[in-house]
Write a structure and sequence with these properties.
It contains eleven helices and 21 strands. By secondary structure, the chain is an alpha+beta fold. The longest helix is centred in the last third of the chain and has 33 residues. Among the domains are: 87 residues, no CATH class; 78 residues, no CATH class. The chain is 29% helix and 15% strand. The strands form eight sheets. A four-stranded mixed β-sheet has the order 3-5-4-8, with helices on one face. A four-stranded antiparallel β-sheet has the order 13-16-15-14, with no helix packed on it. Strands 7-6-9 form a three-stranded antiparallel β-sheet.
Length: 430
């Protein structure tokens, strides 16, 4: 993928290509996000879809069925891959206490499912067992804590007006609904909010230009407001004047507040009174196709009705895919179908009726998308102002000694302050 130094490890033995220079073809001029936040991680690869689900109950049921099975049935249900079989020896995921013995011998209780971000704005559940995940990206788990923020690049689709990046406090799997998956960029390289994942020298350079209040989080806010996809990679134009920077950071902080969705004591996103969506007709156990009445501002889920739903929420797309359509599809596949095990795999073990908590999640998602869509005109105005005005580009960052970025900044930091359980109960010092 564009935007990584040649031969630099991308996690678990992977290497990625050297960054391409931001061209003048599409999008604003400016440095690449890959140079501003140099450490990035490829998306997770679960290898078996049954380890994630929109509800935690299904995951526990799948685990129980798997560990009760034996012989050929257990092997089939496990769904072995080249990376993971029941005999694969792997370490525990950082920060998790799951077992590390060969899964073939596993008979214990299900590990507690964890909330993750499964693609843009879709909060789901994952079984946090390294023996079940082909490529879990342990370097992300190692820095995931109450201080961390994860910036997620979205797969680029030409002429797509959707956001280039989003942010979350949850561990993101980096899944992209369309286009080539982007990368995950933690804001901090170490637990505890230590060592910002910024190019060495970037903060002093930005403070010299915009004032002493520039922090790692304000850089993240600027990226949320100003980042644009381009054929060369995600481009982040930097303004020449401090007033434009302050304007963009203020907008980015509002985008950040909304996307945190009430995490860390923040206020949950809410639309003004009279615009908040409500359930006007209950969602049936097996809702029919999702549709939208633009004139009435009604979202139809079969006979279920939610309103008012702003058009901006319905039309909100990431990587060219409508977010509400994809969210709904992932929860209604298989609803109303017979639940007999037969030859079906574990993924078929899912709710047979619409879950009440999904209705609450839908109302929250509609609210979030509506508020984000409401900020889009300000983002477009900022983009136009940046394109028309002088800016700080890669040449200025080179002159300040920020570029080129040292290869060490593109690799994960060493974590030496805790032990992690290795395969079969051995411990490794990292």
């Amino acid at each position: 993928m564009p935007g990584k130094a040649a031969g630099v490890a991308g996690g678990e033995g992977e290497t990625v290509a050297a960054p391409a220079a931001a061209g003048s073809g599409e999008g604003p001029r400016g440095p690449l996000l890959d140079d501003l936040m140099p450490w990035s991680v490829r998306p997770l690869r679960t290898g078996r879809p049954w380890v994630t689900a929109p509800d935690a109950v299904s995951l526990r049921a799948r685990w129980d069925r798997l560990v009760r099975a034996s012989g050929e049935e257990r092997e089939r249900l496990f769904a072995p891959t080249r990376a993971r079989t029941q005999q694969t020896a792997v370490a525990a995921l950082p920060g998790r206490s799951s077992a590390t013995g060969r899964f073939a011998r596993e008979s214990g209780p299900c590990p507690e499912p964890v909330r993750v971000l499964h693609g843009p704005f879709d909060e789901q559940w994952l079984l946090p067992d390294h023996r079940l995940i082909d490529v879990a990206r342990p370097e992300l788990w190692r820095v995931a804590d109450d201080h961390q923020l994860f910036l997620v690049e979205h797969g680029r689709v030409p002429n797509d007006p959707g956001p280039a990046v989003s942010v979350t406090t949850l561990l993101p799997d980096g899944h992209s609904p369309a286009g080539r998956p982007g990368r995950v960029r933690p804001l901090y390289r170490r637990p505890g909010g230590l060592e910002p994942n910024l190019a060495p020298g970037l903060l002093p350079a930005l403070r010299a230009r915009y004032g002493g209040g520039v922090t790692a989080e304000s850089v993240l806010a600027w990226v949320l407001a100003a980042a644009r996809s381009s054929p060369a990679g995600c481009v982040v134009p930097l303004p020449a004047d401090a007033a434009r920077w302050a304007e963009g950071v203020e907008l980015g902080r509002e985008l950040l507040r909304l996307q945190l969705r009430g995490a860390r004591g923040a206020e949950r996103p809410r639309l003004p009174g009279g615009q908040r969506p409500y359930v006007r007709a209950a969602v049936p156990p097996a809702p029919g196709p999702l549709s939208y009445d633009a004139e009435e501002r009604v979202l139809h889920l079969g006979s279920g009705r939610v309103s008012p739903v702003p058009a901006g929420a319905w039309e909100f797309r990431v990587s060219g895919v409508r977010v509400l359509d994809l969210w709904f599809e992932r929860r209604t596949a298989g609803l109303g179908a017979a639940a007999g095990p037969g030859a079906a795999g574990l993924e078929a073990m899912r709710p047979r009726a619409w879950q009440q908590e999904w209705t609450s999640e839908l109302l929250e998602l509609v609210t979030l998308l509506a508020l984000l869509a409401g900020l889009r005109p300000r983002q477009e105005m900022l983009a136009g102002a940046l394109a028309a005005a002088p800016e700080t580009g890669a040449d200025e960052l080179r002159a300040a000694g920020v570029l080129p970025v040292a290869e060490a900044a593109r690799r994960p930091a060493s974590v030496l302050d805790h032990r992690e359980e290795g395969p079969d109960g051995q411990f490794a010092l990292l």
